[in-house]
Amino acid sequence: MSAFSSWFDELEASLNQQWEALLGTQAQQGSRQDLLREAESLRHELLDLVQEIKEWQGRVRRAQSAHQPELAARAQKQVNRLMAQGRARWDRLGAIGQVLLQQPAASGSIWDQLETEQALEDLRRKLNL
């Protein structure tokens, strides 16, 4: 009975270890998916900000053309605020990218990593960074 009990205990310990490893991998993949969703959300926010910045820059130009320096200054302050928001989102997106690149890729997720890198590069090109 002692040998069987020992074998059974070893089997149980091995199965528990494998179960814990599986749960850890699933949690990591869930975390990765959360980060990818956040990155996608930030990407959309950045694209919206780019459009809004362009609109405000147009307002600055129109105010300057109309010889309204006070109005142009207020519009420029808004452009500066939006650009600061964009930089903060960009920094967060870069941080997410670094975390994703440092995480060990689960089998089949190398494609996700490549897509993430490509999306970041496309966004850099769009924002001229």
Describe this structure in words.
This protein is mainly alpha-helical and 129 residues long. It is rod-shaped and about 95 Å long. Helix 1 packs antiparallel against helix 2 (69-102) and helix 2 packs antiparallel against helix 3 (110-126). The mean pLDDT is 80. It has three helices and no strands. The N and C termini lie far apart (70 Å). 89% of the residues lie in helices and 0% in strands.
Short descriptors:
mainly alpha; rod-shaped; 89% helix; 129 residues
Percentage of residues in strands: under 5%
Low-pLDDT residue intervals, each spanning 5 or more residues: none
By DSSP, the count of extended strands is 0
**End-to-end Cα distance:** 70 Å
What's this entry about, in short?
Helix content is 89%, strand content 0%. By secondary structure, it is mostly helical.
Per-chain topology:
Elements: H1 2-65, H2 69-102, H3 110-126
Helix pairs in contact: 1-2, 2-3
